[in-house]
Amino acid sequence: MEKLGKAAVMTAPNTDLEIREYPLPNVEKGAMLVKIKCCTICGSDLHTWLGHRKSPTPIILGHEIIGEVVELGEGVRTDSWNQHIKVGDRVSWTVIDNCGKCYFCKGLQLPMKCLYLKKYGHDSCDEKPHFSGGFAEYCYISPGTCVIKIPDNLSDEEAAPANCALATVIAGFEAVELKPFENVLIQGAGALGIYAAALAKHYGCNRIIATDINSQRLEFIEAFGATDTINTRDMSNTEGIEAVREKTNGLGVDAAFETAGVADIISMGLKSLRIGGRYVQFGNVFPGADFSYDVSDIIFRMLTIKGIHNYDTRHLLSGISFLSQTREIFPFASLIQHRVNLENIREGLAFARSGKSIRVAIVP
Ligand SMILES: [Zn+2]
Ligand SMILES: [Zn+2]
Asked: What is the number of the ligand closest to the CA of 103?
C-alpha cells in the first residue's frame, strides 16, 4: 500500500490551513526524502498567508526546515560540503533549487535568480512530489538543491532559521564587503536584525547600533552583540539620524541594514550613512514598499544601495558554521519561545503574527 504523509495546506490566503495527506514520492536520482524535525515560521510565510503578496495555491508554506534523511536517491553520497551523508543524518538545504545552466546561474553567477527557480514553501503542492514545503511531515529535496549536514552540537531549533534569515544576512554582508572595526546600523530587531548583530560582532565590528520601536526586542538584541540600541518609536526621522550620528563622531555609520520590512525607515537609514556608506535592503519583501528620497544626496555622498534576495550555497555553509562556532556566545535557541505541532498550526501562525516570539517552531 502507498505510504502517506500529512501536510498543512494553504488553499487561499487568510484562511485556516487544511491538513491533507499526500502519497510519499518516489525518490529520483540525486534527490532525497527527509522527515521534518523542525520548521520555523518566517516573516515571509506570514506575508504569504496574510495575502500581502501573490502565491500559487494549494501550497505548503514553510522553508526554514531541518529534516532527517529517510531515503537517498541514486548517486547521493555526500552533502554539498563533501561530507559523507546517510539515512538518519540531520540536514538543512538551500531555500532555492536552481537549474545551474541558465543565463543567471551560469552567465552571471546569480543562481538565486535562476530563470527556472523553484523555492521550498513558495510553489504549488498540487503535483507530485507534493512535499515542497516545511508545514508537513516530509519534504522532498530535489536534485538541484544544495544540502548540508547539521553539526551535532546544534539543536534542530537553533539551526532551522539558518537557511533563510541567517544565510540572507550573510549574503548581504558579502555584498557590501563589511570589514572589521566598521560601524553598522541595524534597523529592526527581529530575526534578520538579531543575526545581523551577532554576525557583525563576529566580524569584529565596532559600534553595532540597533533601532526598533519595540523596547523588549531592543533589550533582547543586546545579547546578540548590539553595542547600542535606540528606540525610534517617539522619535522624528531627524532625531533618529542625530542619535546614530552622535554614536559615530558625527560621521555616520559605514553600513546600514534594513531588517524590519518597513519602507518608512529607509530614508533614516540612508541619512545615517557616512559619505561612501553602503545600505542593504532585506526586509521589504512585498510590493508597495515605496519611499521617497532626494537622489542628489545619494550622488553627492556617494552612497551604495543593495537589494538582497535569496542567497548562494556558500552563504548557507557559512551560516551553519557560524552557528556551530558561536552557539555558546549568542543564545540562538532563545529565538524560539513557542512550539506547536502540525495539527495546531493555526495557533502557531496566530502566535507568530502576534510578534511575541521571534520565531515559532512547528515540531512533530
Ligand atoms: Zn538557472
Ligand atoms: Zn524566510
From this structure: 1
